[in-house]
Amino acid sequence: MVSKKLKVTNSEGFHMRPATNFANAMAKYSSDIKIKFNNMEVNAKSVMNLIAACIKFGADIEIVCDGADEEAALQEAAGMIESGFGEE
Amino acid sequence: MLKGISVSDGIGIGKAYIVRQGKPEYTPVSVADTEAEAARFHQAVTCFCERTEEMAENMEQTVGQKDAAIIRGHIQMLKDPYMLAQIEEQIKEGTCAEAACENVLNTFIEMFSQVDDELTRQRATDVEDIKIRMLGILLGTETQTLRDIPPESVLVTEDLTPSMTAEMESRHVVGIVTEKGGKTSHSAILARALEIPAVLSVSGAAAQLKAGDTVIVDGREGLVVPQPDQRTLSKYRKQKAAYEAEQEVLCQYIGRETVTADGERKEVCCNIGNLKDAAAAAEKDGEGIGLFRSEFLFMDKKDAPGEEEQFAAYKKAAEVFKGKPVIIRTLDVGGDKGIPYLSMGQEDNPFLGFRGIRYCLAHGDLYDTQLRAIIRASAFGKVRIMVPLVTGVDEIRAVREKVQIITREFEQTGVEYDRNLQVGIMVETPAASLIADLLAEESDFFSIGTNDLTQYTMAADRGNSQVAYLNNPYEPAVLRSIRRIIRCGKEAGIPVGMCGEAAADPLLTPLLLAFGLDEFSVSPASVLATRYNISKWTKREAEAAADQVMKLKTADAVKAFLINLNK
């Protein structure tokens, strides 16, 4: 299991578009991917759960990946969040 | 007459077309052949995705890419593997596809609605929309289609769902009335994109309006008039014609430079209160932001926003207006704008009290945080700092010193910022007007705030209706003050703008041009009208008018003269 603590930097947070892109990107990994936020564990492959969690700008989160491709999954997840989902 | 929120400008007159929503009825049954039921469900999902994709493509043609993305989002939501698995689970236990689908989607509707965030709550509308359409497909009843809506219809419904808008024959819809929804709802955004007059949040609209009745939708005032009499009808027909003629003229000013009749270049910028307004300002062809009220970042919060949060907002505004000026007014609290956590205290005369730059200089840490965020954002565009409620040279010097300390630190630590960052002031007090010559020597620009300048010059509280007659920019005292401020700015060679309501007043345009105003900052909706008003005057005509006006002795005489001149 690998994990990383991060801050959400895009102004929209995990809203519709970022959440969809993120869930789609995570779907290709076989590992279990979770976002720990506000004492919740959110399934990172589920767009509906990501939206319901309402992770906003400035939120402190932790990504936890567990499985065969956990390193690659964590790297891509962290990259997307750190780059602000390429928000214009 | 029914009242609601006006969200999309214009007047529509047509026959009421009422769409009753609500989910299709069915009796949940338990299923024995769960595999066949699961297959039926998957077929419905496929059908849903195909039809939605069709709608999205149709929408790309009629409304645009962005709105099509909203409806495509429905596919993404329904295809969420974890949600699908939950529905499949229920079907496997013998629940029918309709009930399984409804149960699971309802849990998400509930979850989204309980979140303390407007945008997330709006997503509940999307899930509701998905649910009703899925039930329609499963039951073979389909929801009422808007593809066959007759011409000249006023669409009346509980809430305009994205799928309804997507399949609606929009050329046939002359007005929209809904019972739910606010300024930022899907319905509002789509109505504006389609340029259909709309009034939302009209409670009981579907019950009070009868199908086929003539209805007037006044999107300017947020009014709905059912069964108007002949007089009302002809009054609104005239207004509609006038509005449409005006829009046609204004459309020609999109993408054009702002110039006077004799070719002098001017600027029309926008006053905005948040990032959504910034998008509206860009859409309405504003040439920059003349006033960005930074208070919005501080309101509806438990404590002050940090440097990063502010930086992200300022940076975004700078990027929306790449290369064009974005003037950020630093926190202007006090007066009528209290912010609970800033502990402002009770004052007998808040407008004459601890507000604007006075409060900020006394709370150095809070102010430093804001200045740092703005200065960092200046690396991403033409960001400028504007100081509110200045009354003396000491205040602008104090701000400049703070800016210098911060930029010196940024030099050492290698933080990017604009080395030509301008620091200007809002001229809105009689004191600032009287020493405008001194202030001009220490400021990079002036922006005249006519709302406060008028109330302070006339010693008349803006909120007191008994003295409202004095709160009048046509007062000779106010006009002399404005003329003096602009003249002092010009003599010092700095640009002078105006961000009060007077900047958008067509009656005052010739005076402001004669005085030499460079930049007019108005609400996004007034950009094109202001550009048009400026184009009507040559410097000589404007100066001739100003010469006459400045000899008049009362506000009434000034106003009467300007009305006559504008005819």
UniProtKB/TrEMBL annotation, chain A:
It comes from the Bacteria. InterPro entries: HPr, HPr-like, HPr-like_sf. Residues 1-88 form the HPr domain. Keywords: Cytoplasm, Phosphotransferase system. Its main location: cytoplasm. It is found in: Cytoplasm. The keyword Cytoplasm applies. CDD domains: PTS-HPr_like. This is HPr family phosphocarrier protein.
TrEMBL record, chain B:
It catalyses: L-histidyl-[protein] + phosphoenolpyruvate = N(pros)-phospho-L-histidyl-[protein] + pyruvate. Its main location: cytoplasm. It is found in: Cytoplasm. Its cofactor is Mg(2+). Belongs to the PEP-utilizing enzyme family. General (non sugar-specific) component of the phosphoenolpyruvate-dependent sugar phosphotransferase system (sugar PTS). This major carbohydrate active-transport system catalyzes the phosphorylation of incoming sugar substrates concomitantly with their translocation across the cell membrane. Enzyme I transfers the phosphoryl group from phosphoenolpyruvate (PEP) to the phosphoryl carrier protein (HPr). This is Phosphoenolpyruvate-protein phosphotransferase. It comes from Anaerovorax odorimutans. The lineage of its organism: Bacteria, Bacillati, Bacillota, Clostridia, Peptostreptococcales.
